[in-house]
Write a structure and sequence with these properties.
mainly alpha; two-stranded antiparallel sheet; globular; disordered N terminus
């Protein structure tokens, strides 16, 4: 009897492992000077979707509940309409495939492959592990002066993503830190909570050395919300520890204190005395709004922002941003997006596309908070609720000054999958395993008894 117990547990976790492999591939170093685009993790994510489809065909049961299918499939109509309005069939198909990968197919595959809260936690810990690795590389870059260029010095921590995806490491570390905070605030074993808290404190260092103002703002806001959802008393304790750690790291050890203070103070100057990067961003935001005003319902079509940018941008827009360091030479990168996901969707897909995408995200947030409400007092899934709600809040805040693009984008797809599983499946079940169709271990429609499910 005791020898047979580990087998069901191994089979329960095994479907999640391909998704863990996608996360792990983001730890591989990229080719310095590469243009970006699809990478090994993107290719594996396509195989994961194919694996999930084959698995569903073999099992022959309804893959998703009606609610899950509606929420996850909501963006498809807006994307198809915007693809038909693209400047060329190639641009339309390319943009459609990318959006479907990030917001529909990979999230749906994650929802179907995560069987229970144990599988959810495995994925959350894989985020923490990836963040730890990328953060360690970033700290080494700062200490040795081998990072991306920042104010004339090659000290900016970018991990293995290089200067072409300067936000990649900051995004990965932010995701890992939010997962660690959620796991630390849960009701799992004391050992796991202590390890998660240690990771959360350690990840503050590479996040600071990324010099990413956007990641700082989103992470601070998200962690504050996570602490509030976990309870006021716990929030005060953890907040005091975080402040003390920040004082020790920056004030005591002088971890880039002068540059960090200057970067932090620049946050309050984005309106009064913006630097060129902020000016470029404001200019591209205005250009995106101009595109939307021309085509308010359907936008200018997928991949249409670069083509219409110059017709709507003012002379304040520079020719591009300079990147170098971290193993790459000087590169002048063109500004091909408004660095605001909401405005990018509004410009290229119009109100129809924005309502479809953002409507699905708000539905996930509402369902995720409903799940937190169910487990907030005594439920064992509080850590899952805090992780899922935290990841979604971070992403929605980050989309105000960032958009999809670069090798780290596939991690956004996995994030939406994790959030969707908790919001649409995990909040309504326990740790014993339940399929995305609402049946125990996905056995609905196959005539499998409870006894057979537990013993197969």
């Amino acid at each position: 009897m005791t020898l047979a117990l580990p087998v069901p547990r191994a089979r329960t976790l095994s479907p999640v492992l391909p998704v863990v492999a996608v996360v792990a591939l983001l730890g591989l170093p990229l080719n310095p000077g590469a243009e970006g685009g699809a990478g090994p993790a993107d290719a594996l994510s396509a195989l994961v979707v194919l694996f999930c489809a084959v698995r569903l065909l073999r099992q022959r049961h309804r893959p998703l509940s009606r609610t899950a299918a509606l929420v996850l499939g909501l963006p498809v109509a807006g994307l198809a309409l915007a693809a038909m309005g693209a400047s060329s069939p190639g641009a339309g198909l390319t943009g459609l495939g990318r959006y479907l990968q990030i917001f529909v197919l990979v999230p749906a595959a994650v929802v179907l492959l995560v069987r229970d809260r144990a599988g959810f936690r495995v994925l959350a810990w894989s985020f923490v592990g990836l963040a730890g690795w990328q953060g360690a590389v970033g700290v080494h870059q700062f200490v040795t002066g081998t990072g991306a260029s920042y104010q004339g010095e090659e000290i900016r921590a970018v991990g293995t993503f290089g200067p072409q995806d300067v936000m990649g490491m900051a995004t990965v570390v932010s995701f890992g830190l939010i997962c660690a905070v959620g796991l630390a605030l849960g009701r799992t074993s004391l050992r796991q909570r202590a390890i998660a808290a240690g990771f959360a404190l350690a990840l503050l260092v590479p996040l600071a050395l990324s010099f990413s103002r956007g990641a700082w703002i989103a992470t601070a806001l998200t962690c504050t919300i996570q602490l509030a959802l976990a309870g006021l008393r716990r929030a005060l304790k953890v907040g005091a520890v975080a402040v003390a750690a920040g004082v020790i790291l920056v004030g005591g050890f002088g971890v880039g204190s002068a540059m960090l203070q200057e970067r932090i103070s620049s946050i309050t100057q984005v309106a009064d005395a913006p630097d060129q990067s902020v000016t470029d961003r404001y200019t591209m935001w205005a250009a995106a709004i101009g595109m939307w005003r021309e085509q308010p319902l359907t936008g200018v079509g997928l991949k249409g922002f670069p083509e219409h940018r110059d017709a709507h941008a003012s002379l304040a827009l520079s020719s591009g941003s300079d990147t170098e360091g971290a193993g790459s030479g000087f590169v002048r990168q063109p500004l091909l997006s408004p660095h605001n996901m909401y405005l990018l969707v509004l410009a290229e897909q119009g109100l129809i596309g924005l309502l479809a995408l953002a409507g699905g995200w708000l539905a996930l947030l509402a369902c995720g908070l409903r799940g937190w409400f169910r487990v907030r007092r005594s439920g064992p899934g509080l850590d899952c609720a805090l992780v899922a709600c935290g990841l979604l809040v971070w992403q929605l805040v980050d989309f105000m000054y960032a958009d999809i693009g670069g090798p780290s984008t596939v991690l956004t797809a996995v994030v939406f999958g994790l959030v969707a599983w908790w919001a649409l499946v995990g909040a309504d079940t326990g740790d014993t395993g339940r399929g995305a169709d609402g049946s125990a271990d996905g056995s609905a429609g196959r005539g499998i008894s409870r006894e057979e499910t537990l013993t197969r």
